[in-house]
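Note to self: keep these together.
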Amino acid sequence: MNQSEGNNSALEEPNWRETDKLDETNKKQEQRIRNLETKAIQNVNLYFIFQAVVLLASTTAAASSSSTTAAATCRRWWIPFTLSLLAAITNFLSLSTTVSAVLKSREELDQNLSDLASMKSNQTTRDPVSPGNIPQNIPSGDQIIVRPKADNFINKWKRRLVVYFLVGLFVGFSAVVMFGCYNILC
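Structure:
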């Protein structure tokens, strides 16, 4: 083995260590995303069950009341409505926090995958300068490798569109349940 081959393998070894480290980070990030998605689904499912219980209680109260107690029942429409509204607000806040964490984690994962592809194709480390941090005093003969930014706007907007649609469904369901709380009792 000549000296240039030895230097080449010495330069490639840190690159492989760094790509392995980035692969491990990506696996942890994917697991975190799965956990956050599971948390969001469980919160929404618990919310649906709670709303079903509120509607069932309202329906039972309305069905069991006679004509004399119907007026008294109608005056208390705000109790299930308020329970439903509080559940909607707390679940909406929890869901929006979880979904924003999922979106942020997905964007970080996209950037890591872009970095990993760049590292493997260019045989570089992750240290190259980010596009916003290019130093001003660069010697004219030096070459700077700028870290590519993962700009996949289509995937980013697809994710956001799906999230907005699902949040819209959540808000619509909440509005229907709250209207039902009032309408069933009166």
